[in-house]
């Protein structure tokens, strides 16, 4: 199964970008044996529309343009479901084992996600009740994806 990340906003050079790259590199190397192939990070600029509803709609349209109807869409949103790391890993493995060929994790813009996109999503998750900057969400997602494949592999990276 191919996994990608779609993000509204771009990471600038610096430690956050380096840390994300490090985890995604580990994911690429470890994931293949588990049937997980990390493909890409697709970044778009935030919409410049005059109101939040239009910005969310434009950002959602940009995401939808990259998806096939069969792509599993996972949104990161404060209203999503919380998982522990083993549960997150199991959810990804379940989609893989169901024969899903592609999965995209989407990080919306500062205004949140368009309601139509939430309707389309196969899963909506959160990384806790706190509000996180987009750069940190990207780091958390990259690390948890890497952790998920190490759990699938029985690798000792994850310790209870």
What features would you describe in this structure?
The protein has 160 residues and is α/β, with parallel strands linked by helices. It contains 5 helices and 5 strands; from the N terminus they run βαβαβαβαβα. The chain has a 5-stranded parallel sheet, sandwiched between helices. Helix 3 links the parallel strand 3 and strand 4 (102-107). Helix 1 packs parallel to helix 5 and helix 3 (85-97) crosses helix 5 (134-153). The longest helix is centred in the last third of the chain and has 20 residues, at 134-153. The radius of gyration is 15 Å and the shape is globular. 31% of the residues are buried. The mean pLDDT is 95.
Q: Report the biggest beta sheet as strand number plus sense, adding barrel if it closes.
A: 5 strands, parallel
Which percent range describes the beta-strand content?
Answer: 15-25%
Structural class: alpha/beta
* CA-atom Rg in angstroms: 15 Å
Order of helices and strands: EHEHEHEHEH
In short:
Its EC number is 2.1.1.177. This protein is an alpha/beta fold and 160 residues long. The protein has helices spanning 15-31, 52-64, 85-97, 115-120, 134-153; strands at residues 2-8, 37-44, 72-81, 102-107, 123-125.
Please render the helix and strand layout as text.
Blueprint: E1 2-8, H1 15-31, E2 37-44, H2 52-64, E3 72-81, H3 85-97, E4 102-107, H4 115-120, E5 123-125, H5 134-153
Parallel strand pairs: 1-2, 1-4, 3-4, 3-5
Features:
5 strands; globular
